[in-house]
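User
New here, help please:
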Amino acid sequence: KEQAIMTKTLISGSALAFLMVPMAYGQVPVDQVSKSLKAAQEYGIVQYQEVEFDDDGSAEVEGWLDAEWYAEVEISANGEVIQEERKRRDGGPMGMTLSDVQSLIDSAKSQGITLIEEISVDESGQIELEGENAQGREIELSNAKSAMDAAKSAF
């Protein structure tokens, strides 16, 4: 009886751990990234914090609308906003401009990246792009440009 209880506990614990793991994102071809970026720009995002892609071509874009408002927007593969959430945040905007993101994508293409999983910037201003080349090798590009300084001067 004690062994049966332990087994149930382990199974329940494993199931709980599985539920707590965030859904894995996928990748999209480099040439499809611009559709999501255009939709995010049309929505009003001016400073991009993070862009993550799913295998179905949809994207989750996080970024600043202005000096006070931050948005998380889910965009379908055909460029439609599926879900949105806005938050008023302190500290002012930081992130990448659309030009920063486009430059990183151009660099990724020139280095053989064919699929993009994520583009992000951290608090220190480190911009990163994760993707794969045609051989399936994972590649990460980073740019030490201070995106925070660029963002603060834009507002």
In short: Residues 1-24, 146-155 have pLDDT under 50 and may be disordered. The radius of gyration is 19 Å.
